[in-house]
Specification:
- The chain is of the alpha+beta class and 207 residues long.
- The protein has one domain.
- It has a 4-stranded antiparallel beta sheet with strand order 1-4-3-2, with no helix packed on it.
- α2 packs antiparallel against α3.
- The longest helix is centred in the last third of the chain and has 33 residues.
- The two termini are 23 Å apart.
């Protein structure tokens, strides 16, 4: 007597549709539209970013525009906003770069997950290709865990270099351990898949 799987073809189609929609949304809103903004082909592009001043006391709360210079204005206290009056193309690129890179890495993860989901159609997810895909996802998440805090700090320093803002905005990076842990868990899962598929192939060869 066979057992009925709780996962059916309709579930696979719905999962693939959801992942496909996520790929489109991230690709359009996370990569394409910011890229068009950098090229000057889209209005309403990003012209500000949130920063943490070196010393909150140096920016009086009663003053809305604390530091101004070279087309930039720093407003706020502990979590300040650096606003660019008329950013040029290089400034627009630096402003958009962290978002675009993060979106491209997320896009890669979603595409790999979509390929994993497609293997569910055949009813067998434990295939060698999925082991490689999970390893690639884990490495991508690990890279993203490093770049997510580092890249904004680097681009901010490049944006304020040589301006009065450079003294107000220090280089600051804070890593999130949760993403690193998630990356290693995915890598471990990929290794489990790899060993499982190898063991099954060896077992089938003995039959």
């Amino acid at each position: 007597m066979g057992t009925k799987s709780w996962w059916n073809r309709t579930d696979s189609r719905l999962l693939e549709a959801a992942l496909g929609l996520a790929v489109v949304l991230v690709g359009v809103f996370g990569a394409l539209l910011p890229a068009l903004g950098v090229a000057g082909l889209r209005e309403g592009t990003r012209d500000a970013l949130e920063v943490e001043p070196e010393t909150a006391a140096r920016i009086p709360e009663a003053v809305s525009e604390a530091v101004t210079g070279q087309g930039m204005t720093l407003t706020g206290t502990r979590r300040a906003e650096l606003v660019f009056a008329d950013p040029d193309r290089s400034q627009r690129l630096l402003l958009a770069l962290p978002e675009v890179v993060g979106s491209l890495l997320l896009l890669l993860v979603l595409v790999l997950l979509l390929k994993v989901a497609r293997t569910l159609r055949g009813g067998d997810i434990f295939v060698p290709a999925n082991a490689r895909r999970l390893s690639a996802i884990g490495l991508t998440v690990l890279v993203q865990a490093v770049l997510t805090p580092v890249l904004p700090a680097l681009t901010t320093q490049l944006l304020v270099r040589g301006s009065p803002m450079a003294e107000q905005i220090p280089f600051s990076v804070t890593f999130a351990g949760g993403y690193v842990l998630l990356a290693f868990l995915i890598l471990a899962l990929g290794e489990v898949f790899r060993r499982g598929t190898k063991l099954r192939a060896d077992t089938e060869g003995l039959i």
